[in-house]
Amino acid sequence: MPVTDLNTLLGATLKGEYKKRGMRLEDIAKSVGIPYATLRKKIAGQSPIYATELILVCQVIGVTRERVVTDAIDMHGGVDKLVTEATSITDSPDKSGRTIH
Fold it and tell me: What residue ranges define each of the domains in the chain, with the CATH number in brackets?
């Protein structure tokens, strides 16, 4: 799975959690110290969400990062599918024809 897909799934999971709690993204951004426009892009999967940001957003929302990551992976089809895709990417030849391991 490309990183952008994982970011999209993480963002969707976070959005579901904060909406369920009646929270607004603007308030979360302010609490975390990330500009609203930046956090909006991260939640939309248009920009990567870094581990430290994920931890802070989860703390503000009141959900564990483990749950968010697990739910995102489950939305993708589970760990087995993720591992299969990651393996197929690393066993594919790069542009020069070399196999990446």
Answer: 3-89 (1.10.260.40)
